[in-house]
Amino acid sequence: MPDPIQHQQLTERTDFHEFVDRLESVVVWSGDVSGFDYMSPAFEEIYGRPVEAVMEEMSVVIESTHPDDREMVAKMMAGADERIRNGESVREEHRIVQPDGEVRWVETRIFPLESGPGEAPEVVGVTIDITDRKRTELELERQNERLERFANVLSHDLRGPLTAARGYLELVTDEFSHWYLDAVGQSLTRIEEIISDVLALSRIGKMAETSESVDLAETASGAWQITGEDRGYLVEMDDLGTIEASRSLLGQLFENAFRNALEHGATSHSDPGGSEDALEHGSQDVTVQVGLLDEQNGFYIADDGEGIPEAEQEEVFEAGYSTSDTGSGYGLLIIREIVDVHGWDVRITDAETSGVRLEVSNVNVVPAH
């Protein structure tokens, strides 16, 4: 009479195989160091080889591996045995070559199964085709490399002549004092600002890879000391909490927002009251305030400047848009890129003080304790 437990296990395994047999582009397999005891039909779809071949000889998997990846896969498999015996799972990515020469990328995850004392550890694995994802990643890497090369051209090939031009201008200015020489100097300054902003744009992606818990008020205060300490007045709440972000990029966001507020038009104002919780810096040409959104899901930067016409508020984040005649046209674009790489949202609206209010939302703000 058949063992009821063995019968139940056989039934469950049969049901499992029937389920995974229907999966496309996902190979499910099981076995131990001696070979496979199951391989789903999708193996033939991804590897271009019959299931029977790999069931008879495990080396088919290695033979299918791209020559440049075989050593890496062999090392992974050698180290995987000990990890599996310790109950750990294994994950790796590599290339395979189909019989017709087509190269594909696969990701394999191996999970240990319970085994008795002295028995070879059994595993179940899942292999999926990630070719489309890897192609996207590699194309993005190539684009970033091209952008980095372009940024280096700006930094080295253009800044050299600019430095020389500014030096000659200073020599001429010593002897002559004409308004058009001042105009040339302003143009050179604007070119330098554009170069700096384009360089900043090219490096946002890399800088965003490192994030940490960052204090909003502290970061805003540091940015104000760099950009607006001697040109305006900052009203900033003491406790804004912390967010997960790239510290340098968040600082750059505040710096660009403050520069925009200071450059698009200063207005006189009355003293806002000098709250005990406010941080005051410099003169009172422009008032800038940093605070949390009512929903506590982000922060805002508001000023009492001239404001931006409602019809233009949708295009302010485009390259070349500037709120002043001397701006580079990239400051607000940099803000949008910083927001995008963090997965946040940004918009421009009217401030209560009739100026500009820049709102960054969809941010996980951890309240200050």
TrEMBL record:
Domain Histidine kinase: 153-361
Domain called PAC: residue spans: 90-142
Species this chain originates from: Salinadaptatus halalkaliphilus
Keyword Ribosomal protein belongs to the record: no
Superkingdom classification of source: Archaea
CDD domains named among the record's database cross-references: HATPase (cd00075), HisKA (cd00082), PAS (cd00130)
Residue intervals of the PAS domain: 38-87
Protein name: histidine kinase
Enzyme Commission number(s): 2.7.13.3
Signal peptide: none
A GO MF label: phosphorelay sensor kinase activity
PANTHER family for this protein: HISTIDINE KINASE 1, TWO-COMPONENT HISTIDINE KINASE
Catalytic activity: ATP + protein L-histidine = ADP + protein N-phospho-L-histidine
Keywords for this protein: Kinase, Phosphoprotein, Transferase, Two-component regulatory system
Keyword Lipid metabolism tagged: no
